[in-house]
Design goal:
Elements: E1 2-8, H1 18-24, E2 29-30, E3 33-40, H2 46-58, E4 62-68, E5 75-78, E6 80-82, E7 109-111, H3 116-125, E8 130-133, H4 140-155, E9 160-166, E10 168-169, E11 181-182, H5 184-200
Parallel strand pairs: 1-3, 1-4, 4-9, 5-8, 10-11
Antiparallel strand pairs: 2-3, 5-9, 6-7
Helix pairs in contact: 1-5, 2-4, 3-5
Length: about 210
């Protein structure tokens, strides 16, 4: 199995983004799966173009995207992406769409094609807080979650994709009182456990879970 793992560059005035920092530190092989790492821009459509190019080049079985969700206290595996760009701030390209569809011909939503509950359970087994999220927001993270699913459904049938949000890294919370954060080491361990679950669970497990984060 080959898994393409993507992480965003810094955005919103931050000097670092734990998404790409954690992706860069992932092992090259996890549970026997080859891990291909890709930095993507925090820019609508350009992020999707870069992922599409990598899918064409690498032919991965799975595309897993990682994004920062400052303010969340645990690693959250996303359940669904919606066909809506409604950006609270401008992206790194200066784009700030409001209530616009990502793909005019796309459905209202796509569910993750990954075993999200198995992923959460395996992250927790590794001693890292984790949960399912039922909202990926309406910024570039949701854009990528929805957009990659649409690309897979229309251009690369059979390929699986999904999205994980991670908290701020510890150093990002200096000067931010009462803001949750997580060490980069723990984030990497959590993502590694999530990928192990993807490899080991072709179908998801049946347990309760899910919340709006």
């Amino acid at each position: 199995m080959k898994i393409l793992v993507t992480g965003f560059d810094p955005f919103g005035g931050e000097k670092i983004n734990p998404a790409i920092e954690s992706v860069k530190r992932l092992p090259d092989t996890i549970a026997g799966a080859e891990i291909v790492k890709l930095e993507i821009p925090t820019i609508i459509f350009k992020s999707l173009d870069k992922i599409d190019e990598a899918i064409s080049k690498e032919n991965p079985d799975v595309i897993l995207s990682i994004g920062q969700a400052g303010g969340r206290s645990d690693i959250t595996v996303e359940r669904v992406g919606i066909n809506c760009d409604d950006c609270r701030i401008a992206d790194n390209g200066g784009n700030q769409p409001v209530d616009e569809k990502i793909f005019a011909d796309g459905p209202d939503a796509y569910f993750s094609a990954l075993p999200i509950k198995a992923m959460v359970e395996n992250i927790k087994k590794a001693g890292i807080p984790a949960s399912i999220s039922d909202s990926a927001g309406t910024f570039v993270c949701n854009h990528v979650l929805y957009g990659v699913r649409h690309i897979c459904e229309t251009k690369y049938p059979g390929k699986k994709s999904g999205f994980i949000h991670i908290p701020f890294m510890t150093e990002q919370c200096v000067g931010r009182r009462n803001t949750p954060c997580m060490s980069l080491d723990d984030i990497v361990r959590g993502l590694t456990a999530a990928i192990e679950a993807i490899v080991e669970n072709p179908t998801d497990i049946k347990v309760t879970g899910g919340k709006i984060c």
